[in-house]
Amino acid sequence: MIARRIHVSGVVQGVGFRPWVWQRAASLGLVGWVRNSSSGVEIHAEGDHAAIEAMLASVAHQPPPLAAIESVTTVPANPSGASAFVILDSLDHPGGSLPVAPDIAVCDDCLREMHDPADRRYRYPFINCTNCGPRFSIVLGIPYDRANTTMGPFRMCPECRAQYDDPSNRRFHAQPIACPGCGPQAALELNGRVVARREDAIARARSILAEGLIVAIKGVGGFHLACDATDTDAVARLRSRKRREQRPFALMCRDAATVFRFVPEDPRREAILRSPERPIVLFPAIDPGAIAPGVAPGRAELGFMLAYTPLHHLLLEPAGGFPDVLVMTSANLSDEPIAYEDDDARRRLAPLADAMLLHDRPIRMRTDDSVVTAFEGRRVFLRRSRGFAPLPVALPLDGPPTLAFGADMKNAFCLTRERHAFISHHIGEMGTVETERAFEDAARHFERLFRVHPHRIAHDLHPDYASTRAALARAGSDHLPAVAVQHHHAHAASCMADNAIPPDRRAIGVIFDGTGYGTDGKVWGGEFLLCSYASFERAMQLRYSPLPGGDAAARRPYRGALAALRAAGIPWDRDIAAVRAATLQELEILEGQINAGINTPDSSSMGRLFDAFASLLGICHRADHEGQAPCLLESAARSSPTDDTAYEFTIDDADIDPSPALRAAVRDLRRGVDARTIALRFHRGVAAMVTACCRRLRDEHGIGTVALSGGVWQNTLLMELAVPMLRAHGFTTLIHYNVPANDGGIALGQACVAHAVIAAAPHP
Ligand code: ZN
Ligand code: ZN
Ligand code: FE
């Protein structure tokens, strides 16, 4: 008989870990105990050597499905002579910390019970267990127990209490445990008045949706606006109520088989679609059949997710001719944060929705749906939020606790503690009172949950970013040092950290982005950086061209096109669509503006070059969000017939001139070449240019690792063209897998640079 004390760290609380250990110990004949601590789970195991080894192997290699083990350490202990294995009360080490689990889709066991007429939770829309259900969105504080969640006020009934206390039960210490007798309930509101409750509420919502109306639905991390995605009028009405914004709407189906009635089958994407995180997955939309064209205008892809709460499953039941696919789009106007509080939702969503399907389980932390695509069969983030936040990403280097504020668009922050980078959920566009409040609230919440008080602030170099102002305000009020990090250096560092590149390594950062403040005060975004975490050197760049209106040009791609044409020496002839998009008077004003250099900052942005091509081809002249024009250009290129031509860029020393590509495109347009083919030739040209530049930099500097980052790299067609080409030339090619390539991943890079800068600073 020997005894061992085992400490397990990682995501091990709120995931059914202790009852699993208890059951495993019982089957192995071990005695002792297991308990949660604020730094993980502790196990005291007594028994024969083989049984203890078997327990260790199970913990390390076959933990319960939602657990993510980081480390398992053991020390010898004195046998206590216990006669059984028990679960002890939690131990709270002051200062200890451990990850909080994300919100996870309802599991198959719970769904089976929900469909079993003999089960007491039959058709109960808030069924959950230790393997599934809400977590991050309902956590108020740590340790993670019932009182520290928004389920605190719901008194458990005796049956639920018995399950909660029984270590052999699947719901042992499932904090959100609930049943129809004691848990949250659904309600349907029309014009601010409850007209139906419980099952009736869902039935009414279904009939309202089936009539082609719009229902606001409260989910796990916020509200969705839903309508029948096959009803062209309903989709058009939703678009017009959302102020005609052009962003594609996400779709929801009850199961994968239904999804594949609209998009081609794809086993890799199906696996991502079915994963317990249930992200929105982009699928090529070759012949989407009955889906209303207004769902994703101009896009070659559709975003689908599967029902992920029990309420969604009840809502989407196939009976009675109910639509097979619903639009489920974040319930907000354009750039506002997603609505998540009932009263706020009533106020903001009243003009958008015909009815509201609510429930009385409060949401503490809003989390938008995550959006992913697949590259070479692997999941790649476009937005990392529900299902993933607040899980940490591993940091490649040590440093003091740091809060990195990110940038202004599609923002998420990053809070570090030791080697953990806790990346926030999607916060959104900074610069409004709502988002800044949301940011502040979320950052303080993370600091409490992970027991981190930042010793250092990291932020973007841009002096006018709202995130920079917020960072400097925080640094000032808390007397903390602040590190300003150049935007594209942060992107490169983020991609290196995402791939666990150690701090002594350098990479060629190919950073293609919409915008970012350069060290010369100009607008960067088409950069080749030689960089480590600690420093960077700008080795090559897309040639500067004057951008009338600066960052505002992102909303008017034709202006970028006009500036690019001018820079390439191509006259503004009226046969070019981008020229026709401007009035004669506007052309005159722009001409004067460019000549006089008024409000026309120099820009090397690759995102703006993609904008320019989109407008040149008549694909998009006005965008209602950043990235719209490049996405439409990618969609056009994807639908082109096969073509091997690649437009040329002139590469001269540090300067990359796109003029030859622009001239070739205009020539092809005049010859009547299909716009989609021109779009493809441009993509091919960019990929070839990237490879040529990287080869040159490798020859000169001996760096064979390339990091692809910046929002332009969310273009998977560009990745499909560039990555194999780089590999074929022997480059180690890094892309993002754990955080998005766009500004949603930039805070991770800021934190790494801040750590490296401190490490590199001379010690007094
Ligand atoms: Zn479950
Ligand atoms: Zn109950
Ligand atoms: Fe960026």
Question: What this model shows, in words?
Answer:
The structure is a single chain. With 764 residues, the chain is an alpha/beta fold. It has 22 helices and 31 strands. The strands form 5 sheets. Strands 7-6-14-8-9-13-10-12-11-15-16 form an 11-stranded mixed β-sheet, with helices on both faces. A 7-stranded mixed β-sheet has the order 28-29-25-24-23-30-31, sandwiched between helices. Strands 17-20-19-18-21-22 form a 6-stranded mixed β-sheet, sandwiched between helices. Strand 19 (414-417) and strand 20 form a beta hairpin. The longest helix is centred in the C-terminal third of the chain and has 27 residues, at 675-701. The two termini are 54 Å apart. The structure holds zinc ion (2 copies) and fe (iii) ion (FE). One zinc ion is lined by residues 156-157, 159-160, 179, 181-183.
Brief rundown of the structure:
The chain is of the alpha/beta class and 764 residues long.
Radius of gyration: 27 Å
Q: What is the topology, as strand order, of the major beta sheet?
A: 7-6-14-8-9-13-10-12-11-15-16
Give the strand content: 15-25%
Regions with pLDDT < 50 over 5+ consecutive residues? none
Query: Architecture of the largest domain, according to CATH?
Result: 2-Layer Sandwich
- Identify the bound ligands: zinc ion, fe (iii) ion
- Proportion of residues in helical segments: 25-40%
How many beta-strand segments?
31
Structural class: alpha/beta
Q: Name the average pLDDT.
A: 93
The domain tally reads 4
What is the CATH level 1 assignment of the largest domain?
Alpha Beta
